[in-house]
Amino acid sequence: MNKFNPHTRKKESAPLESAFKDLLKAYRLEGKFQEKSLIQAWPQLVGKTIADRTTSVFIKEKKLFVKLNSGPVKKELLMNKGKVMTLIEDQFGKGVVEDLVCF
User: Fold this and answer.
1) Residue 102's closest CA among 63, 58, 66?
2) Which of 27, 29, 24, 54 lies closest to 40, judged by CA?
3) Helices marked H in 1-103
4) Is the pTM of this model over 0.90?
5) First and final CA of the chain: distance in angstroms?
6) Which structural domains are found in the chain, ordered by start?
7) pLDDT digits (tens, 9 = 90+) for 38-56
8) Which residues, other chains included, contact 9 with Cβ-Cβ below 8 Å and sequence gap of 6+?
9) Residue 7: alpha-carbon gap to chain centroid
10) At 97, is the secondary structure helix, strand, or coil?
11) Could you tell me which of 42, 44, 66 has the C-alpha nearest to residue 55?
Protein backbone atom coordinates (compact mmCIF):
# COMPACT_ATOMS: atom_id res chain seq x y z
CA MET A 1 0.00 0.00 0.00
CA ASN A 2 1.32 3.44 -0.94
CA LYS A 3 1.67 5.90 1.95
CA PHE A 4 1.58 8.90 -0.40
CA ASN A 5 -1.72 10.69 -0.05
CA PRO A 6 -2.35 13.20 -2.86
CA HIS A 7 -5.09 14.88 -0.84
CA THR A 8 -2.68 16.23 1.78
CA ARG A 9 -0.87 18.45 -0.73
CA LYS A 10 -1.66 22.12 -1.14
CA LYS A 11 -4.28 22.70 -3.78
CA GLU A 12 -2.19 25.44 -5.43
CA SER A 13 1.48 24.83 -6.01
CA ALA A 14 3.53 28.02 -5.77
CA PRO A 15 6.09 28.59 -8.51
CA LEU A 16 9.63 27.96 -7.31
CA GLU A 17 10.60 31.65 -7.47
CA SER A 18 7.64 32.69 -5.35
CA ALA A 19 8.29 29.92 -2.82
CA PHE A 20 11.96 30.94 -2.62
CA LYS A 21 11.02 34.60 -2.00
CA ASP A 22 8.57 33.54 0.71
CA LEU A 23 11.30 31.48 2.36
CA LEU A 24 13.76 34.39 2.29
CA LYS A 25 11.10 36.65 3.77
CA ALA A 26 10.22 34.14 6.50
CA TYR A 27 13.85 33.88 7.59
CA ARG A 28 14.52 37.61 7.08
CA LEU A 29 17.27 36.91 4.56
CA GLU A 30 16.00 39.05 1.67
CA GLY A 31 18.55 41.82 2.21
CA LYS A 32 21.53 39.47 2.48
CA PHE A 33 20.40 37.57 -0.62
CA GLN A 34 20.11 40.83 -2.59
CA GLU A 35 23.58 41.90 -1.40
CA LYS A 36 25.16 38.60 -2.45
CA SER A 37 23.35 38.73 -5.79
CA LEU A 38 24.65 42.26 -6.38
CA ILE A 39 28.24 41.24 -5.63
CA GLN A 40 27.92 38.26 -8.00
CA ALA A 41 26.47 40.49 -10.74
CA TRP A 42 29.13 43.24 -10.43
CA PRO A 43 31.00 42.22 -13.64
CA GLN A 44 27.79 42.20 -15.71
CA LEU A 45 26.62 45.43 -14.11
CA VAL A 46 29.73 47.52 -14.87
CA GLY A 47 31.21 45.75 -17.87
CA LYS A 48 34.49 44.02 -18.63
CA THR A 49 36.81 47.06 -18.37
CA ILE A 50 35.84 47.93 -14.80
CA ALA A 51 35.36 44.31 -13.73
CA ASP A 52 38.89 43.41 -14.89
CA ARG A 53 40.31 46.18 -12.70
CA THR A 54 38.18 45.34 -9.67
CA THR A 55 40.07 43.44 -7.00
CA SER A 56 37.41 43.38 -4.27
CA VAL A 57 33.68 44.07 -3.89
CA PHE A 58 31.79 43.91 -0.60
CA ILE A 59 28.86 45.53 1.17
CA LYS A 60 28.98 46.84 4.70
CA GLU A 61 26.29 48.95 6.39
CA LYS A 62 24.44 49.54 3.10
CA LYS A 63 27.61 50.83 1.38
CA LEU A 64 29.07 49.09 -1.66
CA PHE A 65 32.86 49.09 -1.38
CA VAL A 66 34.77 48.54 -4.61
CA LYS A 67 38.56 48.18 -4.63
CA LEU A 68 40.13 49.00 -7.99
CA ASN A 69 43.72 48.65 -9.16
CA SER A 70 43.51 51.53 -11.67
CA GLY A 71 43.39 55.21 -10.74
CA PRO A 72 41.76 56.37 -14.00
CA VAL A 73 39.06 53.66 -13.76
CA LYS A 74 38.43 54.61 -10.11
CA LYS A 75 38.02 58.27 -11.14
CA GLU A 76 35.70 57.30 -14.01
CA LEU A 77 33.58 55.15 -11.72
CA LEU A 78 33.29 57.93 -9.13
CA MET A 79 32.30 60.41 -11.85
CA ASN A 80 29.53 58.01 -12.94
CA LYS A 81 28.49 57.05 -9.42
CA GLY A 82 24.90 58.22 -10.00
CA LYS A 83 24.55 56.03 -13.09
CA VAL A 84 25.94 53.00 -11.27
CA MET A 85 23.59 53.55 -8.33
CA THR A 86 20.65 53.82 -10.76
CA LEU A 87 21.68 50.56 -12.44
CA ILE A 88 21.85 48.85 -9.06
CA GLU A 89 18.44 50.18 -8.02
CA ASP A 90 16.89 49.13 -11.34
CA GLN A 91 18.22 45.61 -11.08
CA PHE A 92 18.13 44.93 -7.33
CA GLY A 93 15.66 47.42 -5.93
CA LYS A 94 15.97 50.54 -3.86
CA GLY A 95 17.69 50.32 -0.51
CA VAL A 96 20.02 47.36 -1.16
CA VAL A 97 22.92 49.83 -1.10
CA GLU A 98 22.80 53.54 -0.37
CA ASP A 99 26.33 54.57 -1.33
CA LEU A 100 29.26 53.53 -3.52
CA VAL A 101 32.79 53.81 -2.13
CA CYS A 102 35.80 53.29 -4.39
CA PHE A 103 39.24 52.69 -2.94
Assistant:
1) 66
2) 54
3) 16-26, 30-46, 48-52, 71-79, 81-92
4) no
5) 66
6) 14-102 (3.30.300)
7) 999 999 999 999 999 999 9
8) none
9) 39
10) coil
11) 66
